[in-house]
Amino acid sequence: MSSKNPLVLAHEAGQSLWLDYIQRSMLGEELQSMITEDRIMGMTSNPAIFEQAIAKSDEYDEQLAAEVNANPDISNLELFNQLAIKDIQAAADAFRSTYDSTDGVDGMISLEVAPDLAHDTAGTVKMGLDLHGRVDRPNLMIKVPGTKAGIQAFEDLTAAGVNVNVTLLFSVQRYREIAQAYIRGLERRHAAGGAIDKLASVASFFVSRVDSAVDSALEANGQGDALLGKIAIANAKVAYGHFANLFGSPQWQALADQGARPQRLLWASTGTKNDAYSDVLYVEELIGPQTVNTVPPATLDKFRDHGEVSVTLTQGLPEAHKQLTALGELGISLDDITNELETAGIQSFVEAFDRLLESIDDKRKALN
């Protein structure tokens, strides 16, 4: 095993590691150290992360008080936007040198539209454009859920020249729909005379939650023990196979000739949830070129400590297909499971966002 930092080795293997976390207190020296020492190349946020940061600390109270004093009628949603935008701008500025040195491929920071817009195409596009304009940083990604409504919203935002992180993807089929929407959005933008050479996008494909759900189904089934802890990675490898095919196609090459960049797959939900599995399983097994892994802080620390790096993502695709086939032969529908995970993921973010707004309301009342 190399004595070199595994996080740096993963970067050298062609994968960008992003941090799946944000909190105001870590946006200075702590983040800068991760950028320089660990080669952390970007950052993602979501409603649950902001709930932890804002609701459960006092780091935002001073700005919250100032905003309320300046505008007593400000809504709780707008208060959140003001708090979040300040953090996102600071993070974007911290990653600006990464963005510049990679010519806009990395150095991205993601900000999500309100989760209650998950089934509202027009509302998602409107809020995405609003946040894009307000943050006003070239290395911002607007985060849009990959629901059926989100597919069109993503295409429209891409056509408008907005970097987008499509999140909450669980199924290969939905991923393929999203990748095609990216191509359509680029084609529309190019046809309208817009530049496409600086646009960046990622498709956030969730991993560990798939194993949690499939393992439960396997245990209830009483068969298929050999598939325990295998399906999430198999699912991801099959998605990556489609990525390689699509972004190697003649349809894509026509856009690449105009400077377009492929939409990278981003592995999300990569903290291990089952103590029986390696605590770095969903990092080690998904290392490959032109991908991103957004990693929660605890998993990042573990991988830095004892992670091993080799290009694993491009290995074992035939076996991955066999495992998915074997799951179906047991009568377990992966499509049903991934549909349920999408619904549950949206609901989880809606609930976290509601708790966050309630906490902001409590804090502003305490100021009176």
Characterise the protein shown here.
The radius of gyration is 20 Å and the shape is globular. It has one domain (6-206, 247-268, 286-293, 334-366): Alpha-Beta Barrel (TIM Barrel). It has an 8-stranded parallel beta barrel, surrounded by 9 helices. By secondary structure, it is of the alpha/beta class. The protein has helices spanning 6-12, 29-37, 47-55, 61-70, 76-94, 96-101, 121-135, 148-159, 172-191, 208-221, 231-246, 250-256, 281-284, 297-306, 317-329, 334-366, and strands at 15-20, 42-44, 108-112, 140-145, 164-169, 201-206, 264-268, 291-295.
Task: Describe, in short, the structure shown.
The chain is α/β, with parallel strands linked by helices. The protein has helices at 6-12, 29-37, 47-55, 61-70, 76-94, 96-101, 121-135, 148-159, 172-191, 208-221, 231-246, 250-256, 281-284, 297-306, 317-329, 334-366; strands at 15-20, 42-44, 108-112, 140-145, 164-169, 201-206, 264-268, 291-295. It has a single domain, classed as TIM Barrel.
Largest sheet: 8 strands, parallel, barrel
Q: What overall form do the CA principal axes indicate?
A: globular
* SS content category: alpha/beta
Helix coverage percent = 55-70%
pLDDT below 50 for ≥5 consecutive residues: which ranges?
Answer: none
CATH superfamily: Aldolase class I
Strand order of the largest sheet: 1-2-3-4-5-6-7-8
Give the number of domains.
1
In terms of DSSP E residues, the strand content is: 5-15%
CATH class: Alpha Beta
First and last CA, distance: 58 Å
